[in-house]
Amino acid sequence: KIGPKGLKKKIDIEYHNLCKLYKRK
């Protein structure tokens, strides 16, 4: 099970990746 900290880190990483993909256009 992932704790709140782990979940936030996972979301932050996915959000960061989305930002990179979006800026690449």
From TrEMBL:
Record's keyword terms, sorted: Plasmid
Name the UniProt record assigns to this protein: RepA2
Gene, per the UniProt record: repA2
